[in-house]
Design brief:
- Helix 1 runs antiparallel to helix 4, helix 1 runs parallel beside helix 5 and helix 2 runs antiparallel to helix 16.
- By secondary structure, this protein is mainly alpha-helical.
- It is globular and about 55 Å long.
- It has 18 helices and no strands.
- Helix content is about 75%, strand content about 0%.
C-alpha cells in the first residue's frame, strides 16, 4: 500500500469517471424512453457517444502533448460536465446525439489522461497490484452507480445534476495527484491495415465485440423496460451483466495461454451465443430467468475483447504490440458505432427480444468465421508467444500500455 498510495488520487478520479460514465449510459436510455424516444432514436443517441469516443481515441494524444495532462483533463471534464447538464435543458433527439458525441470525445480523452498518467507513475513492482485495484475500481464503481437510478429516479434534473457534479469533482483528486504533470506520452499510431495483416480473426473479433457488447450497454435498459422490468430490476439486470464479465476472465485467459487461443475464443463465443438464444427464446418476461441469462452472457461475452487482443499479440512481431493495442480499440469502436444503430431498428420493428436475436446472429457468424480461420492458419505454439493474456478495459489505448511491462512492448524501429 505504501507503493500504491501515491496513485490513489488517480484511482479515485478513475472511479468517479467510470462510475459516472456507466450511470449515464443506462440513465440516458431510460430517460429517452420516458421522453417518448423510439428505440431507433435511442440507438442513434448511443451511436453518438461511440462515434465521439472513436474520434477522441485518434486525437487525444495530440491534445495531451500540446497542453499537458492536467490542462487537457480540466478542459475535457468541464466540457463533459456542461454537455451532461445541458441535456436536461433541451429534450431533443438531435441535440442529445450531439451532446453524447461530445461526451464520447471527452471521455476518451479523460480516460487516456488518467491511464497515461498512471502508466508514467507505475513501476514494474507495483504494476500488477495497481491493475488489480484499477479493475476493482472499475467493477465496483459501475455496479454501484447503477443503483443511483432507482434511488434517485429518472424524473426531473437530479441525475443529470449528479452526473455533472461527478465530472466536476473528478478534477479534485487529480489536481492533488502530483505537483507536476508527467512527460507527454508518445504519439499513438493507428494502422488498421497492419492489424488486419497480423490477425484477421482478431480484427473481426474486435468488431464483433463492438457490435454486441456495446449494444448491451446502450440498449440493454430498453430491452429490460420492454419486457416489463421495474427501474430497480433494470439496474440489477445491467449490474449482473457487468459483474459477470469478470467471472470467467481469468479462467478463460489461463487456458488460452496453454491451448490454441482460438479454441478458447470459440468457447467464449459459443457460450455467449447460447446465452443470447436463451434470453431471446426461453427467458421470456421472467425477471429471474433474464438475470440468469444475462449473467452467462456477460461471463462469456465480456472476455472476448481481451482474448482477441491476446490472439493478435501472439502473431505480432517485436515492436508491433502498440499498434495492436490501438488497432483493436479502433475496430471495436467501429462495431460500437454500427451495433446500437442497427440493433435499435430491429427493436423498433420486432420488439425487445429482437435485441438478443440480433446478437446471437452476429455471434453465430463469428463462430463460423473462427472455425474457418482455424482451417487456414496454424495456431502459435505457447513457447513462441511473446505476451500472455491480459484482462483489458476498452477505456483508452493507454490501458494496454499500463498492463504491459515496458520490456514486452518495445517501440517500433528504435
Amino acid at each position: 500500500m505504501n507503493q500504491i498510495r501515491p496513485l490513489i488520487p488517480l484511482l479515485v478520479t478513475a472511479g468517479i469517471l467510470i462510475g459516472g460514465n456507466g450511470l449515464q449510459g443506462t440513465f440516458i436510455s431510460l430517460r429517452a424512453l420516458q421522453e417518448g424516444f423510439s428505440p431507433s432514436v435511442i440507438g442513434l443517441v448511443g451511436t453518438g457517444y461511440n462515434l465521439g469516443f472513436a474520434i477522441g481515441c485518434v486525437y487525444i494524444t495530440r491534445v495531451i502533448r500540446s497542453i499537458g495532462h492536467i490542462r487537457a483533463f480540466s478542459a475535457l471534464a468541464a466540457i463533459a460536465s456542461a454537455a451532461s447538464i445541458s441535456m436536461v435543458l433541451l429534450i431533443d433527439p438531435f441535440f442529445w446525439f450531439l451532446m453524447r458525441l461530445i461526451q464520447g470525445v471527452c471521455f476518451a480523452g479523460l480516460f487516456a489522461v488518467v491511464e497515461s498518467w498512471l502508466n508514467a507513475r507505475v513501476t514494474n513492482a507495483t504494476r500488477a497490484r495497481t491493475l488489480s485495484v484499477y479493475r476493482f475500481v472499475d467493477l465496483g464503481s459501475v455496479t454501484l452507480a447503477q443503483y443511483l437510478i432507482p434511488t434517485v429516479g429518472i424524473d426531473g434534473f437530479q441525475l443529470f445534476a449528479i452526473i455533472s457534479m461527478a465530472l466536476t469533482l473528478s478534477l479534485v483528486p487529480i489536481s492533488f495527484a502530483d505537483r507536476s504533470s508527467p512527460e507527454p506520452p508518445d504519439a499513438v499510431r493507428f494502422n488498421v491495415k497492419t492489424l488486419w495483416q497480423i490477425s484477421p480473426l482478431a480484427t473481426v473479433g474486435c468488431v464483433v465485440v463492438g457490435l454486441t457488447n456495446s449494444v448491451f450497454r446502450s440498449l440493454g435498459p430498453v430491452y429490460a423496460e420492454g419486457i416489463g422490468m421495474s427501474i430497480a430490476a433494470i439496474a440489477t439486470f445491467m449490474s449482473v451483466g457487468i459483474f459477470a464479465g469478470v467471472v470467467l476472465q481469468y479462467p478463460l485467459g489461463h487456458y488460452s495461454d496453454k491451448l490454441d487461443r482460438r479454441k478458447i475464443i470459440l468457447v467464449a463465443t459459443l457460450g455467449s451465443l447460447a446465452a443470447g438464444v436463451f434470453i431471446a427464446f426461453v427467458a421470456g418476461d421472467s425477471t429471474l430467468l433474464n438475470y440468469a441469462g444475462i449473467f452467462f452472457f456477460g461471463a462469456f461475452a465480456m472476455p472476448l475483447y481481451s482474448l482477441c487482443s491476446a490472439h493478435a499479440n501472439d502473431h505480432a512481431k517485436e515492436g508491433q504490440h502498440a499498434l495492436v493495442s490501438a488497432g483493436t480499440l479502433f475496430f471495436w469502436s467501429i462495431g460500437a458505432v454500427i451495433g446500437p444503430l442497427f440493433a435499435s431498428f430491429m427493436l423498433d420493428i420486432f420488439g425487445p427480444h429482437a435485441l438478443f436475436i440480433y446478437m446471437a446472429v452476429v455471434l453465430a457468424l463469428f463462430l463460423g468465421y473462427t472455425v474457418q480461420r482455424m482451417t487456414v492458419r496454424e495456431g502459435v505454439p505457447t513457447e513462441r508467444r511473446t505476451m500472455s493474456f491480459r484482462n483489458l478495459l476498452r477505456t483508452s489505448t493507454f490501458f494496454n500500455k499500463l498492463a504491459t511491462p515496458p520490456s514486452e512492448d518495445k517501440p517500433e524501429n528504435k
